């Protein structure tokens, strides 16, 4: 059962994850590390989150990661992530990865649906001009349609029009919906895949994963008793804890960083 996290109160689940031997702290980006914004590429982690993630990444046996539906190139931009960053990235819902000290392979080179994606973009771009405020995003393995700047009615009409295009041209692509976004992907990976890959890569004995949207539930559902799931905001969830906002995520992570810094070696 999910319960609200109480800032300032001792929490056994928080203390347990803070003291696990090898910790992976993995966050969704939009709505978790950052506030939700109308322009998808204007999203940035709030300062308090940036500060505490740097603190955590500097601790022994601790890895920090972002797990996002964004293409890796876009995730690096909004995360203000450079080649010297200690933060691991999992983009495209777990189809792309960036690890410190390693270069990214050209993921698109082996994508058999790349030409279909480009053709779909060519068809959708003029179509969506009929829906003011709806924005088209090209992703490495798919296409995103953002409705946040539009009215709810216009968003519904645009999403219906896009569904009709995919029913005709790419019925086999995976459809996802989130908070005012519709996404189609040529890949089947979800954030549960990213959790499994990063658990193996880091040797984590415990994972804290936090997210705010429907796609984050894929990751939350595969966490074990040694992990801790956190839901940001309202909505049905498999998470153990719920916080109100990215600011509260920063406060929760600060508690974990403080406890972890003082744990016995």
Written account of the structure:
- The chain has about 260 residues and is of the alpha/beta class.
- It has two domains: about 5-105 and about 190-260, HAD superfamily/HAD-like (Rossmann fold, 3-Layer(aba) Sandwich), CATH 3.40.50; about 115-185, 2-Layer Sandwich (Alpha-Beta Plaits).
- It is about 35% helix and about 20% strand.
- It contains eight helices and twelve strands.
- The strands form two sheets. The chain has an eight-stranded mixed sheet, with helices on both faces. Strands 6-7-9-8 form a four-stranded antiparallel sheet, covered by helices on one side.
- A hairpin with a 2-residue loop joins strand 6 (about 135-140) and strand 7.
- Helix 1 (about 10-20) crosses helix 8, helix 2 (about 45-55) packs parallel to helix 8 and helix 4 packs antiparallel against helix 5 (about 150-170).
- The longest helix has 18 residues, at about 150-170.
- The radius of gyration is 19 Å and the shape is globular.
- The mean pLDDT is about 95.
In a nutshell, what does this entry contain?
Helix content is 34%, strand content 20%.
The largest beta-sheet arranges its strands as 1-12-11-10-2-3-4-5
* CATH homologous superfamily assignment of the largest domain: HAD superfamily/HAD-like
The whole-number mean of residue pLDDT values reads 94
Terminal CA distance reads: 32 Å
Radius of gyration: 19 Å
Q: What portion of residues belong to β-strands?
A: 15-25%
Form type: globular
Listing every helix as H and every strand as E from the N terminus to the C terminus, the arrangement reads EHEHEHEEHEEHEEHEHEEH
The structure class reads alpha/beta
| Biggest sheet record | 8 strands, mixed
Here the CATH topology of the largest domain equals: Rossmann fold
Count of the separate structural domains: 2
